[in-house]
Design goal:
Layout lengths: L1 H13 L4 E7 L18 H8 L2 E7 L5 H10 L33 H7 L3 E7 L23 E5 L14 H4 L1 H23 L5 H22 L2 H5 L2 E3 L2 E4 L7 H18 L4 E6 L21 H22 L6 E7 L33 E4 L8 E8 L2 H10 L15 H5 L9 E6 L2 E7 L8 E7 L19 E10 L15 H19 L10 H4 L27
Parallel strand pairs: 1-7, 1-8, 2-10, 3-4, 3-7
Antiparallel strand pairs: 2-9, 4-5, 5-6, 8-9, 11-12, 12-13, 13-14
Helix pairs in contact: 6-7, 9-10
């Protein structure tokens, strides 16, 4: 085996096709990483990618929540083009066993690499759907989107997965108690009408049951996330329910290491996507990382994440494929400010779930490609997670799809230092299916401008909402605010609307927004309440009939 592995390593070293390793964290803040200015938590392994490659300081997602951001990342297209931009308040695919998901007609970067003979694995969080029409069709499953191996969550991590935490529903008291209050008041009214003999006992009971059904259904969905959403899949098979969060980071890492070694032995170029569950709450680490950092549970989890990334980077060196491997690190959106274990977005305004502010959409972006990109370089030009689609396609020698609009751009000349201006002239920042801000990078000068048309409905005196901001409640500005993002990344000093600069720049951005909207072709939205609601007939149950005895542990990691 050792001789065979050595031969495989030599083949990889001379291969013209680079391997690709993608690390995408969940809810990681822009200011959480050492190379982006954090000195409270140690992230030496992530920092090493920046030291050996290129750091992007204006690296942007297309949305400040998971599902739409990941959709755009995988497809190189704004989520509005694939129906993954929500017209309703719920902007993420909350229940994995709903029919909402990334359409199979979309072409992911995994499908691009498949054309070039790559083997692809994704380990961790998917959050882009499972079934579409019926149980078992796996229309939205990662193995139907270009990946060959999958181990992880088809949904997402939630506070509810830890019984000691406050459940998400009760973290939004204005919503929770309004439902309970409405039900209670109506029930009392029905009882009063019954007592005044407006109808008989049977009618009262029937009316009360009818009124109770929606409230009970609502309570079942939102107060039982651990039963309805906490499970792990290996490929198509359910292997664990509920998820054991402590040690999950190591299990994902082990799956990634095994995948890389198998691909090397098989002499196949590979793409590995490590879609980490950290730093999304609930945060739980293996025992050896408990209390390791100086800033509590969040810091412990971040150091565990960094260690896990370090183990994969170490394995890349051990396998002898470092010189032929692209390594990229990012996050799906910014840190969640409204939770106690949320991330740190540095000087940026806002965070996860906030529509326009940079804190939710500007994320770490680091990439190294030995022999192609320089070491220790930085670019302050605007770039997007969508651009990775184009970079991967170029790296593996596959043309971009010609039958659809690809919004990613070729940033390779920028990363190599051959040009010094972003290929993006305009970039659009969505909250649900609404554009709430847009960036403009003129073809000359140094300044990147940002026009904000909507602001979050913050708690008075604070830059946070109650648990999460809601697009439909955001405040439309009568006069949009223009910011110089080069000198004012914290969005603290808007340009005077009477100035010549404002009068020159803002119409250009408003025109670009109008033209972008005109380019959007009608598509079926995945975010209707009918598609979002969980289909209880599809709910999995390991060892029984739902909802009884739904418990199992992944046998591969049972000890």
């Amino acid at each position: 085996m050792e001789v065979y592995l050595l031969f495989a390593i030599l083949v990889h070293c001379v291969s013209a096709k680079p391997n690709i390793v993608i690390f995408i964290a969940d809810d990681l803040g822009y200011g959480d990483i050492g190379c982006y200015g954090n000195h409270s938590v140690k992230t030496p392994n992530i920092d090493s990618i920046a030291r050996e490659g290129v750091k992007m300081t204006q690296h942007l997602t297309t949305a400040s929540t998971c599902t739409p951001s990941r959709s755009a990342f995988l497809t190189g297209r704004y989520q509005i083009r694939s129906g993954m931009a929500a017209p309703v308040n719920m902007r993420v695919n909350t229940w994995p066993y709903s029919s909402c998901g990334l359409p199979a007609s979309e072409i992911t970067f995994a499908e691009q690499t498949k054309k070039a003979g790559y083997i692809n694995g994704i380990f961790g969080k998917w959050h882009l759907g499972l079934h579409k029409e019926q149980l078992g069709d796996f229309e939205h499953h990662p193995l139907n989107q270009g990946f060959d191996s999958f181990y992880g969550l088809t949904g997402t991590n939630l506070d509810d997965f830890d019984p000691s935490e406050k459940v998400v529903l009760k973290a939004m008291p204005y919503w929770y108690y309004s439902i309970i209050s409405t039900w209670s008041v109506t029930a009392v009214a029905l009882f009063c009408l019954y007592k005044f003999k407006y109808y008989g006992t049977l009618t009262f009971i029937v009316l009360l049951i009818i009124w109770s059904i929606p409230s009970l259904y609502f309570y079942l969905l939102f107060d039982n996330y651990i039963l309805l959403t906490s499970f792990l899949h290996r490929n198509y098979d359910l292997v664990e329910q509920p998820i054991r969060l402590a040690g999950l980071c190591q299990r994902l890492m082990n799956e990634g290491l095994e995948f890389m070694q198998n691909a090397t032995v098989a002499r196949q170029p590979f793409m590995l996507v490590m879609s980490w569950v950290h730093m999304h709450v609930a945060l739980r680490t293996a025992k050896e990382f408990e209390g390791r950092s100086q800033i509590g549970r969040y810091g412990d989890a971040l150091e565990e994440l960094d260690w896990s990334i370090g183990e994969i980077l170490k394995s890349i060196k051990t396998l002898g494929i470092e010189d032929n491997t692209i390594v990229y690190f990012t996050s799906d959106n910014g840190g969640h400010l409204e939770v106690s274990d949320g991330g740190y977005n540095g000087i940026l305004k806002g965070g996860k779930g906030h529509g326009a502010p940079d804190g939710g959409i500007r994320v770490p972006g680091i990439i190294k490609w030995p022999g192609v990109l320089g070491q220790g370089q930085t670019t302050d030009e605007p770039t997007s997670l969508m651009d990775i689609y184009n970079l991967i396609s170029t790296a593996v020698g596959v043309d971009l799809p010609s039958d659809r609009q690809i919004d990613g751009r070729n940033i390779l000349p920028l990363l190599k230092g051959d040009v010094n201006v972003s290929p993006h002239e305009f970039m659009f920042h969505y909250c649900g299916n609404r554009i709430q801000a847009a960036r403009y990078r003129p073809r000359d000068g140094q300044i990147t401008w940002k026009l904000v048309t909507h602001e979050p409905n913050y708690i008075p005196g604070k830059n946070v909402c109650v648990f999460v901001c809601t697009c439909n409640l955001d405040v439309a500005l009568t006069t949009p605010k223009l910011y110089d993002m080069t000198s004012d990344p914290g969005e603290t000093s808007p340009i005077n609307s009477n100035s010549q600069t404002y009068k020159k720049i803002s119409p250009l951005i408003l025109t670009a927004i109008k033209e972008h909207k005109a380019s959007i072709e009608p598509v079926e939205t995945q975010f209707t309440w009918g598609k979002l609601r969980p289909n209880l007939r599809w709910q999995p149950c390991c060892n029984g009939t739902f909802p009884f005895n739904c418990h199992c542990i992944d046998e591969k990691y049972s000890t």
